[in-house]
Amino acid sequence: MTFTNTIIQFENVTKQYDNDSVVLDHVSFEIEKGKFYTLLGPSGCGKTTILRLIAGFTEASSGTIYFNGKRINDVPANKRQVNTVFQDYALFPHLNVFENVAFGLRIKKMKNADITIKVKEALRFVNLEGYENREIKEMSGGQRQRVAIARAIVNQPEVILLDEPLSALDLKLRTEMQYELRELQRRLGITFIFVTHDQEEALAMSDEIFVLNKGRIQQSGEPTDIYDEPINRFVADFIGESNIVPGKMIADFLVEFGGQQFECVDQGLNQNEQVEIVIRPEDLAITSSDQGKLQVRVDSQLFRGVHYEILGYDHAGNEWLVHSTKKATVGEEIGLYFEPEAIHVMRFNETEEEFDKRLEGYEEDYDAN
Ligand SMILES: Nc1ncnc2c1ncn2[C@@H]1O[C@H](COP(=O)(O)OP(=O)(O)O)[C@@H](O)[C@H]1O
Ligand SMILES: [Mg+2]
């Protein structure tokens, strides 16, 4: 028997509600024990559907779902080792804090004395000791959020599913709860699967992110990998701000865009292959026009507190967004400087497997060259 850390696995899972269009299209992924995962994607891409399939609230149309190595497609929701924190928290307004958290344990017919111990422990975990007798309506948004989390952890599930739990909170509370949730996951050591449409939230909180669009996983990986090496236009655009311009691969380590050729770290593509180029705004530095690698005429400029956001156009008509601590002058021509590593070359219709394979040898080969 081989040792595995995998707790949940989706194998070619497709979901179609009635005769409607396909909501999840051959989705495959693995979730490991004890990590913080995020499903990230725009509204309607299938995030909640994935959570519902894991929780057993809906059935897969085809494909297999495994939990701890066993097929669970036909296991009812109440027999699964998962608990869900819903978007609206779904607390019972007529029950106090204690009874909301105790609810699942009472259904399981646990002894009163044991229930008290478990509920108190769960409330301590979310910093709500002493709130046992409060009514739900007396609790703030952030406190309700914590009650919902206490209710999810009190059963000691192996996995907690969180469906956009922070989206109803204001920005400041939201940031606080991001820290709290991340910290709670570390202390509990159980698997969290968190859903959000907010890319900054996903980057800040996750060990692993699955980026979804239209019922398909576009890319999965650690936040820095996805940010630094987006697989396609959708991911580059959805995660952070990007400059995406058309380009052409001239040879290994040489790419053309904006009417010029540049040294890059990419290799193994076809000669003259049409590609898309991504450069992050913070990877562009401003120079005088003659010292830059690319010349851009400044169209507009905004001061953002930490940096200036400068927008300009190169001679080929491509738009360039630059984040710089230096100020530019609207109407003037400036130079842009960037390292070869800042250029990311994206192929059209590349699968995640092909993409990962292509990137594997890049750094060593480029350094050796
Ligand atoms: N019960 C349902 N019946 C029919 N279509 C549904 C149902 N639930 C969700 N959908 C559709 O499935 C798609 C994905 O929904 P959902 O998983 O809720 O997306 P997300 O959580 O990413 O916003 C949407 O187009 C939605 O309209
Ligand atoms: Mg949803």
From TrEMBL:
<keyword id="KW-0472">Membrane</keyword>
<comment type="function">
    <text>Part of the ABC transporter complex PotABCD involved in spermidine/putrescine import. Responsible for energy coupling to the transport system.</text>
</comment>
<dbReference type="InterPro" id="IPR017871">
    <property type="entry name" value="ABC_transporter-like_CS"/>
</dbReference>
<dbReference type="Pfam" id="PF00005">
    <property type="entry name" value="ABC_tran"/>
</dbReference>
<dbReference type="GO" id="GO:0005524">
    <property type="term" value="F:ATP binding"/>
</dbReference>
<keyword id="KW-0547">Nucleotide-binding</keyword>
<comment type="similarity">
    <text>Belongs to the ABC transporter superfamily. Spermidine/putrescine importer (TC 3.A.1.11.1) family.</text>
</comment>
<feature type="domain" description="ABC transporter">
    <location>
        <begin position="8"/>
        <end position="239"/>
    </location>
</feature>
<dbReference type="InterPro" id="IPR003593">
    <property type="entry name" value="AAA+_ATPase"/>
</dbReference>
<dbReference type="InterPro" id="IPR013611">
    <property type="entry name" value="Transp-assoc_OB_typ2"/>
</dbReference>
<dbReference type="GO" id="GO:0043190">
    <property type="term" value="C:ATP-binding cassette (ABC) transporter complex"/>
</dbReference>
<dbReference type="InterPro" id="IPR008995">
    <property type="entry name" value="Mo/tungstate-bd_C_term_dom"/>
</dbReference>
<dbReference type="InterPro" id="IPR027417">
    <property type="entry name" value="P-loop_NTPase"/>
</dbReference>
<dbReference type="InterPro" id="IPR005893">
    <property type="entry name" value="PotA-like"/>
</dbReference>
<dbReference type="InterPro" id="IPR050093">
    <property type="entry name" value="ABC_SmlMolc_Importer"/>
</dbReference>
<keyword id="KW-0067">ATP-binding</keyword>
<dbReference type="GO" id="GO:0016887">
    <property type="term" value="F:ATP hydrolysis activity"/>
</dbReference>
<dbReference type="InterPro" id="IPR017879">
    <property type="entry name" value="PotA_ATP-bd"/>
</dbReference>
<keyword id="KW-1278">Translocase</keyword>
<protein>
    <recommendedName>
        <fullName>Spermidine/putrescine import ATP-binding protein PotA</fullName>
        <ecNumber>7.6.2.11</ecNumber>
    </recommendedName>
</protein>
<dbReference type="GO" id="GO:0015594">
    <property type="term" value="F:ABC-type putrescine transporter activity"/>
</dbReference>
<keyword id="KW-1003">Cell membrane</keyword>
<keyword id="KW-0813">Transport</keyword>
<dbReference type="InterPro" id="IPR003439">
    <property type="entry name" value="ABC_transporter-like_ATP-bd"/>
</dbReference>
<dbReference type="Pfam" id="PF08402">
    <property type="entry name" value="TOBE_2"/>
</dbReference>
<comment type="subunit">
    <text>The complex is composed of two ATP-binding proteins (PotA), two transmembrane proteins (PotB and PotC) and a solute-binding protein (PotD).</text>
</comment>
